[in-house]
Amino acid sequence: MRPQDLLVLRPDGLCCPPGDFLIDPLRPAARAVITHGHSDHARAGHDEVLCTAATAAIMRARLGEGAAGRFHTLDYGETVRIGEVDVTLAPAGHVLGSAQVLLEWRGLRMVFSGDYKRDPDPTCAPFEPIRCHVFITEATFGLPVFRRPAPGDEIDRLRASMARAPQRWHVVGAYALGKAQRLIAELRAAGEDRAILMHGAAMKICALYEEFGVRLGALEPARADSAKSSAPGLALCPPSALQDRWSQKFGDPVRGMASGWMQIKGRARQRGVELPLILSDHADWTQLQQTILDTGAEEIWITHGQEDALMRWCDLRGLAARPLNLAGYEGEEEAAE
After folding, report:
1. Which residues does UniProt call coiled coil (predicted)?
2. Contacts (Cβ under 8 Å, ≥6 apart) of 71
3. Is the predicted pLDDT of residue 89 greater than 80, yes or no?
């Protein structure tokens, strides 16, 4: 069977006609399969949503009562028949509850990766490669320049900076869903046990992570007098808060940001970032290559990112590749998490 008969690109998103559902639709849909809780993938107003239990909880927390008319949750590895299609969710390693979507129809196996990474992450299940005929991959960091250092090295840089400047607060921009919790968990694993001050945008999500068994240690909401009432330490906030009035309560802090885009020095300078931390929840160039090989797929669809370089890499290896121009899905920084 032709892959184009199983998944079709429409203005409202990626549609599966044999199952009569959409994956991460851009507009309210009767049936939606949602890969994860970031706002460029999980939108409100769907009649029925299929996702993991953690993603359902995240959508309820962020979108409220209008998140969906009804949720159907699957464990990783569990399969459900929708119309003529068998649907299975597998770990994507992106954030808590994130999933790849395996579609099986008349002998054809297609995998929609959603957003994913291969780095170890103490806050979510690790990515599992799935053998398939067609693999749909993101390419947010799909250029050879994006080869990241080990996450532990970046955590060590943050802790070393805090030790060198104990008289200054460190205020680090980290997206409220996924990145903030990962940064906290990595710091705890490295031995940092002091209380961390949090911008209000992330506190609710941190509590939800705790409910799903992710231990984050002592966290405190950052209040107007927090910086004066305690010794300088670490405060986390959304990247957008680094330059607004919220960060001014910390005097002259060391401003940091945790993002894959911090590998580009110009981006760090534009944001006034003194301590760029190259920590991403997306696959880098090497991980994209390895994942494509691990799936054994002969056809690769590439979406929301740098398609040209990855298409060329596939072509040199005899793999059929084409861009899947999904509008409305931003990259890690542009999603403004």
Report:
1. none
2. 48, 49, 50, 51, 56, 59
3. yes
Exposed/middle/buried for residue 1 (C-beta within 10 Å: 0-12, 13-18, 19+): exposed
Percent of the chain exceeding pLDDT 70 equals: 96
Secondary structure class of 83 (helix, strand, coil):
coil
Q: Which two tokens stand for residue 288?
A: 């994209």
* CB 101, CB 125: distance < 8 Å: no
Residue 333 falls within a domain, yes or no?
A: no
Residue 333 has a pLDDT of 45
Are 172 and 236 in contact by the 8 Å Cβ rule? The answer is yes
Total domains in the chain come to 2
* DSSP one-letter string for 240-292: GGTTSHHHHTTSS-EEEEE-GGGGSHHHHHHTT-SEEE---SS--HHHHHHHH
In a domain, 328, yes or no: no
**Which of 70-74, 131-135, 190-194, 330-334 is least confident?**
330-334
CATH code, 211 = 3.40.50.10890
Q: What is the CATH number of the domain that holds 61?
A: 3.60.15.10
pLDDT-derived band at 330, boundaries 50, 70, 90: low
Does residue 241 sit within a domain?
Answer: yes
Joined together, the tokens standing for residue 232 give: 């300088």
Which domain range does residue 85 map to?
3-145+282-323
Distance CA 102, CA 130 (A): 8
